[in-house]
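Fold description:
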Amino acid sequence: MKRLWPWSESLLMSLSPAGALFPGRMAEAGPRRIDKFILKKTYCMSKNIQKQKPLVLIVDDTMMNIDLLADVLREDYRLGIATNGVKALEFVRKNKPDLILLDIMMPEMDGFEVCRILKEDSRTRAIPIIFITALSDTENVARGFQLGGCDYIPKPFHTLEVKARVKSKLNELNQLSFVENIFHTSLEGIVITDQDMVITMANSMACSITGYEQDELIGQPIDILQTRDRGDTSHDIHSFLGDNDHWSGELWNRRKNGERFPQKLALSAVRNLWGDIINYVAIFHDMSEIKRHKDELKYQANHDALTGLPNRTFFQFRLIDALEDARRHEEKMALLVLDLDHFKQINDSLGHLVGDYLLKEVSSRLEGCLGDALLARLGSDEFGILVEALGSEEWAVKIAEQINLSLGLPIFYEGHKLFISSSIGITFYPEDGLDPETLMKNGDIAMAQAKARGGNTYQVFHREMDERIANLLSLESNLRRALEHEEFLVFYQPKVDMRTGRIIAMEALVRWVLPDGGMVSPAEFIPLAEKTGLIVFLGEWVLKTAARQTKKWWDQGYKVPVAVNLSPRQFQEENLVSVVRDTLRETGLVPEALELEITEGVVMENEENALTILREIDEMGVQLAIDDFGTGYSSLHYLKQFPLHTLKIDKSFVDNIPADDENVAIATAIIHMGKSLGLKVVAEGVEEMEQCTFLRDLGCDQLQGWLFSPAVDSDAFTELLTTNTILQIPPYGGK
């Protein structure tokens, strides 16, 4: 394209919104029109296009220089033009360019003065300024840099040099802006010091964490943030780096208000090209919330949520440490294991709110009796007490006596007047054990002995205790723990119709499965549970568990009723009928799907009371059976009087049938008696087909025993139901 104007009549060019050129001759426009055109257009690209391009302001009083610079830069940048210093300042305040190309020698206000004014203003201080001038002496160049200029381009300039320097400075600006953005928006506190550890910069997060304003930190030594507590390692920050340029770790520092706080600190030395340290950079994070959260989790892991007391985990670790101290100092130590008497009855009958209040009140009273001794809640209603540096065994006994006196006072809660007592086992180090496990075991044994004596007392462990008693007491302690840790399972043994061989009913039987997979025989723990009263809670759990599982099977189409044993202790409970009714309601099981088995002795102890209870249960639609018939009274009188539905022949009368004539006579009599009263008859413990066919031929309705299946868990019983397993019984008269 042919140029239509000489450089002396420099054409002013600006991109329109559409990107077209606006030519105009100086002669045609005149100086005023040119000046007005410059102020109006200022060589800026439209605000509506190419916003990503940096804005460069050209300040020069010579139009030829402006034209040359514009030709060089307009493809890569948005451009602004000012022909003197005043207009340059006016432009900068309105538009804030990314970079300024500033001529020094101008009328009215030279470039040095423009630079000085811009650098004194915090709003424009950061704009990079490149001086363009014919002044090349060292003094003027140095003055430009002292005023804040970032570079210098001598006249006459070369286009490639201009482009390179502008690009380089804008890249530096972008990098600096990026770093500054990180610095100011970081979620970490950042403090920069000089080589003497005097703070030169601090970001807003550093101020937020420390509580200082920025101007309060700048110029101060960095140890303004450090603690001065004895034992703190943070008092000599130089020691962290040593011969290294980097260090990171956790330490305590201090806020403006004097508050100490934990922080995660990364400290780095910054060196120049010659290896000299010129700055230190400290990046830190306030660890208060993290530490508080960790402390809270640690506290929760080691303390009981309800009472705030240390828990079993904490107690066991402390016991290990206490034993080590006692061993080192050759001191005596006492361990007391305390279990509340009949707490579960209170908790179940009055509700958990009352039970929780009771536990907190008991904890408070226990703390009042112990002084410096450690108190922990080991389980639901079990507490541990550790007495270190024990002067004499009598002191531990006095503590136990004081506890029982304190707990003997009534506890009042929302109209309830509650009484609670405890059973306490006492064992001593080193006489009774040298390790935590032995001491805890012996404490449990002594506590169980106190409970066996009726509770509300203490028992000191003695080596002379009979091993059988110790095992029994240990079993009771384990039984209580098993209840708490849900180590019991309900197994189911099928009852088979002797005519068809099909499963027609089942009996729920409780099994105690140890953590290692072994099992405790029911013959061992059922009598003990009955004796201690734990059978009440265990029996209720079995009833509800069996009802829930039976409901699932009925929903799946397997209409097999379940029989659940009621122990003598359960039958004595005043709320037995309510428990049965609540179980049906809570599980949704229909009454005809449940049968309750009781022994003869239960109904004969108090016939009138038993009759009332059985009639109420019968009215619900629940079936009733006499278990182990023939081993007790075997009275026709109560069979007629009570609303019974089933008789179960005890296994002892099934053994050796048909060879044992006496058992044959008894079994025959029971079957005939049951049939005459319209009762179903079930034979227990059937193990051989010969027994099965003989009893079937006598008129027995159902068999239960290993001939068909032992008691199995719910999954295995489900398989028996789904596979429609049938016992192949020979026809009548068959072999």
